[in-house]
Specification:
With about 290 residues, the protein is α/β, with parallel strands linked by helices. Helix content is about 50%, strand content about 15%. It has helices spanning about 15-20, 35-45, 55-60, 75-80, 105-115, 130-135, 145-155, 170-200, 205-210, 220-230, 240-255, 260-275, 290; strands at about 5, 25-30, 50-55, 65-70, 95-100, 120-125, 125-130, 140-145, 160-165. Strands 1, 2, 3, 4, 5, 6, 7, 8 and 9 form a nine-stranded mixed beta sheet that branches.
């Protein structure tokens, strides 16, 4: 068992930190809103490890073997790492910082360099699987960084991971998450168009999905979201606002690399349409609303 800290108790971080507690680790949590940290302590008071809340990232990170973070964007990662009362200055030498935020690869490289100056390890480790994956402890984790630091963190991340892999040097995890988001964006747009065609043609869309999901068209999105898209239900976790943030990171990286991602750029605009329709907090399958209202 390890002594760990978890910074950020949003829809992902809250259950992820909970899995660490239930696995028997000693966990100190930090959240920008302290009341939520107190609620987390109450929710997991039956865990076998010792649980604490700290008022600052530094307070949570002091004496931890591994510090996990799952916050909003690049600026939030910088704040909890190197800002006033940031974790880096309080961490003991040899400790590892694991960033589960979906952020830029450039940020991951910069934070890794800052960590190395202080004798710390840093792993960029964005996750896929959404709120349900976090709650059920079956996230996919894409990692970049030093192999020795990863080896320390990987057994602890197993508390909430179905798949966890080191994919290269610092930034590789964030780049892999970009690949993941490009795949999802294209699939959801294709599925939206397909369902729009089926319903417009007067077909029983659910019956069609039941048939084609057994063939080459099958995907996780089809099996898990097509029925709810047909029913107009869009409250399944990963919000349009978050997807636009992620696709913005993707398109910025593509610009830096000098490559074109035309479908991704188009779907990003389509998600902008959904935002304008009031769908900012609806899940990403709400892309079909552009066709069906």
């Amino acid at each position: 068992m390890a002594k760990v800290a978890f910074l950020g108790l949003g829809v992902m971080g809250y259950p992820m930190a909970g899995h660490l507690a239930r696995a028997g680790h000693d966990v100190t949590v930090y959240n920008r809103t302290g009341e939520k940290a107190e609620r987390w302590l109450e929710a997991y008071e039956d865990a076998s490890g010792e649980l604490f809340a700290a008022p600052t990232p530094a307070g949570a990170a002091a004496d931890a073997d591994i510090v996990f973070a799952c916050v909003g964007a690049d600026k939030d990662v910088e704040e909890v790492c190197t800002g006033p009362e940031g974790a880096f200055d309080a961490m003991k030498k040899g400790a590892v910082f694991v960033d589960h935020t979906t952020a830029s690869a450039d940020l991951a490289r910069r934070m890794a360099a800052e960590a190395e100056k202080r004798g710390l390890g840093f792993i960029d480790a964005p996750v896929s699987g959404g709120q349900a994956g976090a709650e059920n402890g079956v996230l996919t984790i894409m990692c970049g960084g030093d192999a020795a630091a990863y080896a320390k963190a990987e057994p602890v991340m197993a508390a909430y991971a179905r798949m966890c892999r080191l994919l290269g040097a610092s930034g590789a995890g964030q780049l892999a998450k970009m690949v993941n988001q490009v795949c999802i964006a294209g699939i959801v747009q294709g599925l939206s168009e397909a369902l729009h065609l089926a319903m417009s043609a007067g077909l029983d869309a659910k019956a069609v999905v039941d048939v084609i999901s057994k063939g080459a068209a099958q995907s996780w999105q089809m099996e898990n979201r097509a029925p709810t898209m047909i029913d107009g239900k869009f409250d399944f976790g990963f919000a349009v606002d978050w997807m636009r943030k992620d696709l913005g990171i993707v398109l910025e990286e593509a610009k830096r690399l000098g490559i074109s991602l035309p479908v991704t750029a188009l779907v990003d605009q389509f998600y902008g349409d959904v935002q304008a329709m009031g769908g900012k907090r609806q899940d990403t399958s709400s892309l079909i609303r552009r066709f069906r209202g």
